[in-house]
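Work package 3, deliverable 3.1, input record:
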Amino acid sequence: MGTADIPDIVVSRLPIYLRALTRMSQEGVKTTSSHELGRRLGISSAQIRKDLSHFGEFGKQGTGYQIEYLTGQLRRILKVDREWEVALVGAGDLGRAVAHYNGFRDRGFRITLVFDSNPAKVGTKLGEFEIYDVARLDDLIRTQGIAVAMVAVPAEAAQAVTDQLVAAGVRGILNYAPINLAVPHRVWVQHIDPVVHLQRMTYYL
Amino acid sequence: MGTADIPDIVVSRLPIYLRALTRMSQEGVKTTSSHELGRRLGISSAQIRKDLSHFGEFGKQGTGYQIEYLTGQLRRILKVDREWEVALVGAGDLGRAVAHYNGFRDRGFRITLVFDSNPAKVGTKLGEFEIYDVARLDDLIRTQGIAVAMVAVPAEAAQAVTDQLVAAGVRGILNYAPINLAVPHRVWVQHIDPVVHLQRMTYYL
DNA sequence: TAGATTGTTAATCGATTAACAATC
DNA sequence: TAGATTGTTAATCGATTAACAATC
């Protein structure tokens, strides 16, 4: 029980559990156990039970977990039982791919604003989205009360964009630029850098 | 000292160090210390020194680390002091963005093969790359001795593609599909799933 | 009922940090 | 030299795992 003081490493595993459970649900499975889930994920069953126990009791002895119920609880805990509006800064190749990706919507996130600094792109459409000038970033994000943003600009521009986002009130930033962003304590940053993952693998090859 | 038995969590931080040091080098800085690097990364200086000490002695008391020397050593340790040829499976929006991304080349990776299953795409060009039919995956990857691949296909196809890659001898897979891949022990998989990172942030918002 | 599986406790294991002698 | 910083040891801290009573 309790919502405060949960180790971040526990929180970081919940979306993985949610993803696997959603998949199992799509496969038509109704019930699972910590053993089965652990086997799928390469995680011990004890760890899964321990992680979940921080938030409540979601299973039944003898039978395990109702997948639909558990996914509902995980969505609530992770606050993705609602839809978060997300701003995307950068409409280059990567920004385009991100904007076209359908996988955000059904997992709690919807892109509602796209920005770019290139005057040739401003005013054009990126799929269903109009591309706005970054000069309007503060105004639009503030007005629409957007809390989450994705940064898909070149490394050189990433820190400046981040500063603008933070000033506009954004509290969570997903950064695709290969650079460590400096942000105030109240803001959360997560990095997506495929090369970091590749380099981590080549060490073992 | 020693190359075996290094905790994976230590290995996973080396690419982060390398990225930060490369950045500092670009900024014209020649020398740094565990304190300065730690401040940039939000990591304690003790941890950086401890991590590096698994692999050797790279600094000097009183003055710290020569950035050029340390980056060279990290590249060697991570085996990115060479260029790895990488196969890309999936030439959709995401695959296109990945193929166009310039950030792989100077960090140790070069895409040399692109595959797709869509007959309308096979034979066309994706930037400088010809798109091959996945039916030729085994032959081409085996012939060219490629060890690393990126999977950028829909979730439904990801496991089948992975099985083919593994059969063809690939030993490291960077997976962009939102699904947990099953692979033999000798194969390394890393996941890129932006939604997992977003969900990890919304927990705190 | 018998078998299975949970949630939780205590033990183990491993990672991080503080401190400092060595030394540039 | 005096100040700074390393590499390393020992202490602390935290995470994982094994085990089991409870119970479906």
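Residues 8-26 of chain A form the longest helix (19 residues).
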